[in-house]
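Inverse folding, one chain.
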């Protein structure tokens, strides 16, 4: 059939659909007859309810269903005939003044934008690399040792130093008044590890058991306790006990306590190296993927569909309300959250999503079964029972969709790196691990 498509604005289109009234009524009658064979009503045996009664009770809802189905079918046929890539659901409204025996509808909808890609071959892109050094393994060993440290009380005249565990009584006052959370007895903290404000740690460092000291503490403006944020307090601290830390030796006993099968130092270091290499691999992949995606988005030209951006903003507002609710905020569902604060992020997400989808579609970058399997196997390899983890992924469509999304993004990233002018850039292990994510 011939389909007339009107352009309302850049991406908005309108199609007029016509449906014969007889076809609609015929389908309504057919569905009501089928319903009459199974419907149950008081006073009638199943299958014996008169059609007039069935029509009176269910006629409107069946007619509504048929209209939705028929209009939806007509729209899909028309859109396919016009070779349109429809984004989202059309808004359909009935038109007045239709010819006798027909019903006409306007379907207003948005089409996916045409994406024009710039020349990736001339673009410059850094591919970050990093190695797991012996120093990184040593640092991880130190962390594991600290997690298993023990403490022994120091002599009474031994001053507190970094690494010691101090047990103190303290009371802090602002303008002569004790504030909430400003007083504690038998409070323990590790000196030099940033558990307390620097001025507090500096005051306790060097003190001996039984000593007391008064000193000022300036709370930073961004301090989590709003009552004292940006203010100065006077603290009195009494040291009750100083304990020195003892870290376990790096030996077979430590390896055994950490569940290393061979229980040797070499096997322990090898296990740490393997785990760090896995973490480094995923972090490098994420960082390089982000660089590729940013380049891809910057090199693409397209119009953003307003309806898709709006849907993304709506989703982000709902997510924000859900977060408030989880934090125990009263009436979080009614919280006034201005949607425009999410617009830049929503536009960025929609833009990248459309660009990636077009690149995948036009270059055959969909996830292949063997890629999905390899990714799941790699995710499962760090667990004690990998096959159970594999089954956990394969048994849930939502989890598999997440895996597919990651694999597709990896394919897109490799495609971009394969086209651009790439420079290998080495970063230190510490720099890579310091980055969020």
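Residues assigned per position:
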């Amino acid at each position: 059939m011939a389909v007339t498509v009107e352009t309302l604005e850049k991406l908005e289109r309108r199609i007029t659909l016509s449906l014969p009234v007889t076809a609609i009524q015929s389908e309504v009658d057919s569905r009501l007859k089928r319903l009459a064979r199974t419907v149950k009503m008081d006073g009638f045996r199943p299958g014996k309810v008169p059609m007039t009664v069935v029509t009176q009770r269910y006629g409107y809802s069946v007619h509504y269903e048929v209209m939705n189905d028929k209009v939806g079918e007509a729209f899909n046929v028309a859109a396919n005939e016009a070779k349109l890539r429809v984004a989202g659901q059309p808004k359909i409204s009935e038109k007045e003044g239709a010819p006798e025996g027909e019903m006409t509808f306007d379907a207003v909808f948005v089409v996916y934008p045409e994406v024009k890609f710039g020349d990736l071959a001339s673009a410059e892109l850094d591919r970050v690399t990093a190695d797991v050094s012996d120093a990184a393994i040593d640092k991880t060993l130190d962390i594991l040792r600290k997690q298993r440290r023990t403490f022994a009380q120091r002599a009474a005249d031994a001053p507190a130093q970094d690494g010691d565990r101090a047990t103190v009584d303290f009371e802090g006052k602002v303008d002569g008044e004790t504030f909430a959370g400003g007083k504690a007895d038998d409070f323990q903290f590790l000196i030099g590890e940033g558990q307390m404000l620097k001025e507090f740690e500096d005051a306790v460092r060097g003190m001996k058991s039984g000593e007391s000291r008064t000193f000022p503490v300036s709370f930073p403006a961004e301090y989590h306790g709003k009552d004292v944020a940006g203010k100065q307090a006077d603290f009195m601290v009494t040291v009750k006990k100083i304990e020195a830390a003892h870290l376990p030796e790096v030996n077979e006993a430590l390896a055994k306590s950490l569940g290393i099968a061979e229980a040797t130092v070499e096997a322990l270091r090898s296990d740490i190296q393997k785990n760090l290499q896995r973490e480094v691999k995923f972090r490098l992949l994420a960082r390089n993927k982000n660089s590729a995606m940013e380049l891809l988005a910057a090199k693409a030209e397209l119009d953003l569909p307003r309806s898709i951006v709006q849907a993304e903003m709506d989703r982000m507002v709902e997510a924000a309300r859900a977060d408030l609710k989880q934090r125990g905020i009263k009436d979080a569902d009614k919280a006034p959250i201005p949607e425009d604060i999410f617009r830049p992020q929503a536009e960025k997400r929609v833009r990248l999503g459309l660009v990636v989808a077009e690149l995948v579609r036009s270059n055959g970058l969909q996830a292949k079964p063997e890629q999905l399997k390899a990714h799941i196997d790699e995710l499962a390899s760090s667990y004690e029972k990998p096959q159970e983890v594999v089954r956990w992924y394969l048994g849930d469509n939502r989890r598999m969709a997440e895996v597919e999304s990651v694999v597709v993004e990896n394919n897109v990233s490799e495609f971009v790196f394969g086209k651009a002018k790439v420079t290998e850039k080495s970063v230190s292990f510490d720099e890579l691990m310091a980055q969020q994510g």
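DSSP finds twelve helices and 13 strands in the chain. The two ends are 53 Å apart (CA to CA).
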